[in-house]
């Protein structure tokens, strides 16, 4: 029988991947009006407007229940360190990815980004995190699925932009492992808020250094910014943090990678894009990998 805790956490992670997959359209439209760092700043500010009131409501409910949390200096320090580490990783990964996408195809970018499924267990070895044979089989199966899904022509040759995406995938893996560590030490929603605040601050610095933001362009992109900020950043990253708590980080990375599959399915459902047999096989393999990691291990006598 499947572990109820694992099933619940997996559903939360899947919801994060679902939100990110459908948010791809909003991010693409937003780039028509504003530059990357400006978009990052806008979406994270919106996310803060979503999360800060949620934290206030949660604290109020806890006080009514007589469960007021006593935050120590060490607790605040852990929250600050966790938010800065996770937020810096998320910002760096997003920035490298955005730079790389400009110089490579979207398909290759999606496949190379999904490589964090491999980097998470490899980096986890140095942190003494065990990854069983079943999970490694699922990782390979998911990679084959992503290859069929993202590289529709079957070609693969490295361009300059691909190297940026590869760096991004490594940093995404580090971010997943950082969340795996800090989510056991601090409140998930507060960690998400601290992570997004760090992302917004770093984005603001880079925006004023390398871009010339115009208020009229920001207002023109208000809908994709609000959608990406409220759902993708505010809800999606919070679900990632909550869902990863107590989960194997490699399994979590597999589920989160379904973002690429969902984005293709979203294009098929909403934009009436054609889904080839090759892409359908890729989707099936990716989902099969997730099912495999959910199967219970044999009980040892």
Which key features would you list for this structure?
301 residues, mainly alpha
Averaged pLDDT: 82
Number of helices: 13
| Percent of sequence in beta strands | under 5%
Q: What class do helices, strands and sheet pairing give?
A: mainly alpha
The main sheet comes to: none
The helix-strand sequence is: HHHHHHHHHHHHH
Amino- and carboxy-terminal Cα gap = 16 Å
**DSSP, total strands:** 0
Low-confidence stretches: none
As a percent range, the share of helical residues equals over 70%
Q: Nearest-angstrom radius of gyration? A: 19 Å
Name the overall outline.
Answer: globular
What are the SSEs and their pairings?
Layout: H1 4-30, H2 36-64, H3 73-101, H4 106-113, H5 116-126, H6 133-150, H7 160-182, H8 188-210, H9 215-220, H10 222-244, H11 249-256, H12 258-270, H13 277-294
Provide structural commentary.
The structure is a single chain. The protein has 301 residues and is an all-alpha fold. The chain has helices at residues 4-30, 36-64, 73-101, 106-113, 116-126, 133-150, 160-182, 188-210, 215-220, 222-244, 249-256, 258-270, 277-294. Helix 3 (73-101) packs across helix 8, helix 5 packs antiparallel against helix 11 (249-256) and helix 6 packs antiparallel against helix 13 (277-294). It is globular.
Structure described in brief:
With 301 residues, this protein is mainly α. Helix content is 78%, strand content 0%. Helix 3 packs antiparallel against helix 7 (160-182) and helix 5 (116-126) packs antiparallel against helix 11.
């Amino acid at each position: 029988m499947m572990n109820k805790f694992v099933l619940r956490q997996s559903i939360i992670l899947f919801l994060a991947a679902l939100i990110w997959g459908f948010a791809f359209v909003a991010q693409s439209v937003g780039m028509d009006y504003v530059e990357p760092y400006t978009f990052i700043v806008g979406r994270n500010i919106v996310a803060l407007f979503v999360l800060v009131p949620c934290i206030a409501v949660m604290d109020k409910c806890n006080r009514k229940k007589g469960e007021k949390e006593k935050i120590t200096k060490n607790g605040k320090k852990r929250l600050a360190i966790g938010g800065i580490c996770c937020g810096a990783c998320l910002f760096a990964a997003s920035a490298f990815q955005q730079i790389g996408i400009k110089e490579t195809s979207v398909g290759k970018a999606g496949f190379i980004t999904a490589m964090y499924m491999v980097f998470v267990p490899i980096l986890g070895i140095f942190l003494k995190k065990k990854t069983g044979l079943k999970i490694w089989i699922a990782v390979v199966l998911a990679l084959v699925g992503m290859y069929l899904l993202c590289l529709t022509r079957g070609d693969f040759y490295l361009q300059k932009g691909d190297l940026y995406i590869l760096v991004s995938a490594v940093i995404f893996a580090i971010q997943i492992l950082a969340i795996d560590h800090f989510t056991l030490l601090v409140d998930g929603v507060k960690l998400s808020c601290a992570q997004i605040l760090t992302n917004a601050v770093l984005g603001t610095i880079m925006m004023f250094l390398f871009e010339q933001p115009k208020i009229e362009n920001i207002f023109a992109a208000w809908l994709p910014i609000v959608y990406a900020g409220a759902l993708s950043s505010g809800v999606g990253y919070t679900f990632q943090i909550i869902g990863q708590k107590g989960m194997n980080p490699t399994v979590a990375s597999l589920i989160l990678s379904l973002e690429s599959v969902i984005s293709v399915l979203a294009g098929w459902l909403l934009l009436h894009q054609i889904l080839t047999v090759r892409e359908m096989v890729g989707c099936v393999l990716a989902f099969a990998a997730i099912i495999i990691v959910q199967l219970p291990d044999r009980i040892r006598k």
